[in-house]
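Notes to self, SDR family oxidoreductase:
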Amino acid sequence: MTTLPLAGRVALVTGAGNGIGLAIARVLAERGARVALNDLDLEAAARAAQTLGEAHLSVRADVSSEADVEAMVGEVRDAFGRIDILVNNAGVGDGGVPTLDQSLAVFERTLAIHVNGTFLMSRAVAAGMARQGGGAIINLGSIAGELGIPVRTAYSVAKAGISMMTRVLACEWARFGIRVNAVAPGYVRTRLVEGLITSGRLDARRIAARTPLGRMGQPEEIARVVAFLASQEASYVTGAIVPVDGGYTAFGGPFDASGAFSGYDAAAPAKEGDSGPPRRTGHDPREGDGS
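result:
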């Protein structure tokens, strides 16, 4: 009988009531972990936990509150006895407001949830992980923390802070056997993003054209990378910021990233006997988002 890669492990996933967080919780559970699903909305966390089965737990906490974080970590340890995996996924958007119009209250709240929350959660579980002989912390960064995206000041600063915190904690806690990594998703088709597309605030076709793989990501594609980083398959990986963005941050050309209707699409014919990679001359990514 094949043993599941995360069998016997306990995971705590913040912001797991829906979207990427729920997808991460689901994949971790499928790979054998018992999962505590956190959300500020306890009902959402409870509904999500029920979809995974009776072995899992729902817990409420505001990750920007030190008291809430300490109480939640204690509750999970009381229920499961340990925490082996922490996924810092909880977050909020900043509304996409131009910086000159951005309020200090929204700016501070965005940083409090992303940066303070990641710090408080990581600190709260690290001592227990060290006593156990190790653990894995996976943070949710973003392409917004790696690239300059206009009108995303608070969110971008928060995600850049998470990236640096990931590196610092990885170096500081490696001697305890704690690995700390981050994933940096690109545009992902969550329920929130679908709403932005429907309302016209986000142009899916332009994003697809800017992305070398020609489409947005799916929550499960982020979740599978998180599960890898949580597993022993990634036992020599720490301090890494892994882009899961379809090539978005790698691309630097002044034309459509898909290759269609672009200069590099006019490649020289393949030599005789060499089939070579297929050319993508027949597809205009502007005709659809590829999802």
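- The first helix runs from residue 19 to 30.
- Residues 277-291 have pLDDT under 50 and may be disordered.
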